[in-house]
């Protein structure tokens, strides 16, 4: 396959569709009326800035952003530096300690360094109203992010999809298992992590798969100094 085009190119038609324009207008109206929307407007598409389409190697799908003050940074499961590590991410770190030799859990929850290595940290719903989880589930974000997954499925090969929980696992219908690697596990939430997320070894399995495909592995230790990509 040749070099992939940019997110801007492959998603340009999607962003011109009536549902997407209505979605953006709705968000602008809500912000104008004083509603607090997370993440900050500049961070809504942060995942795409940090992980260009041609660099995607792993996709981790979340549901919607954290809804508490200062948490959401535009990346699934990640929070801004200085913010308390959420329970699901804490369990992700516990699994990494068990799975990756020498892994030491960081004192922060910022996963930007994963994103700059080719891990697309994609929430299915890209915004949320403060204090109201899942409040933007009916605005059209799922249509947009389903198209993102479909683009990756069609344009790329040998991508690792880590689908944790039933919500993320519904996306398997968009992924061709003959062209990609899909790992399934329960969600890392404290309510379900003990049912099979802890012990799933998805991080080492992902690196083993990438090695077999001749790709560089992911350094799963989150670090704070990262490069940033410009939007096309």
From TrEMBL:
It is found in: Cytoplasm. Its EC number is 3.2.2.27. GO terms for molecular function: uracil DNA N-glycosylase activity. Its main location: cytoplasm. It catalyses: Hydrolyzes single-stranded DNA or mismatched double-stranded DNA and polynucleotides, releasing free uracil. The keyword Methyltransferase does not apply. CDD domains: UDG-F1-like. The active site is at residue 64. GO terms for cellular component: cytoplasm. Residues 49-210 form the Uracil-DNA glycosylase-like domain. The keyword RNA-binding does not apply. GO terms for biological process: base-excision repair, AP site formation via deaminated base removal. Keywords: Cytoplasm, DNA damage, DNA repair, Glycosidase, Hydrolase. Excises uracil residues from the DNA which can arise as a result of misincorporation of dUMP residues by DNA polymerase or due to deamination of cytosine. HAMAP family: UDG (MF_00148). Belongs to the uracil-DNA glycosylase (UDG) superfamily. UNG family. This is Uracil-DNA glycosylase.
């Amino acid at each position: 396959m040749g070099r992939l085009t940019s997110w801007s190119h492959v998603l340009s038609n999607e962003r011109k569709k009536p549902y997407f324009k209505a979605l953006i207008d709705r968000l602008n109206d809500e912000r104008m009326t004083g509603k607090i929307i997370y993440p900050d407007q500049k961070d809504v598409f942060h995942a795409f800035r940090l992980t260009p389409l041609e660099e995607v190697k792993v996709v981790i799908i979340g549901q919607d952003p954290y809804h508490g003050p200062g948490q959401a940074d535009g990346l699934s499961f990640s929070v801004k530096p200085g913010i308390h590590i959420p329970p699901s991410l804490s369990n992700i770190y516990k699994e990494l300690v068990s799975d990756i030799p020498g892994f030491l859990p960081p004192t922060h929850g910022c996963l930007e360094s994963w994103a700059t290595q080719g891990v697309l940290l994609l929430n299915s719903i890209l915004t949320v109203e403060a204090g109201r989880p899942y409040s933007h589930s009916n605005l059209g974000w799922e249509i947009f992010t389903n198209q993102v997954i479909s683009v990756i499925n069609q344009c790329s090969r040998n991508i690792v999809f880590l689908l944790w929980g039933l919500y993320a696992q519904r996306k398997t219908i968009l992924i061709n298992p003959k062209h990609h690697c899909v790992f399934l596990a329960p969600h890392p939430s404290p309510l379900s992590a003990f049912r099979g997320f802890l012990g799933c070894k998805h991080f080492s399995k992902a690196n083993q798969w990438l090695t077999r495909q001749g790709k560089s592995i992911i350094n799963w230790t989150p670090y704070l100094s990262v490069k940033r990509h410009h939007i096309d």
